[in-house]
Sequence to fold (93 residues):
Amino acid sequence: MKLGFAEQAPIQIGVAIFIDYNQNNSFTDAGELVYSSPLGINGAHTESGSIVIPTAALTGLTGLRVINSEQGYPITNPCLTYPWEKRRIMLSI
Fold:
């Protein structure tokens, strides 16, 4: 997985990614936060990482939520309303 950020302003930006492995539409269960940017990265940059799907994950179409973060604000709850971009994508497991 590779994520790119093109923001040129000197602000901290990042992302949090959640996968609803048990398909209960909450994204808050243990292990469903699968990636969180390190805090303190300013401006344009690329992040990369790997996500391993647990064997206990339900198969089929599963929700994946990506939330953009600015100003170094940590994303800890996928169900809150944040002032930044949020996307829900369907992932086939």
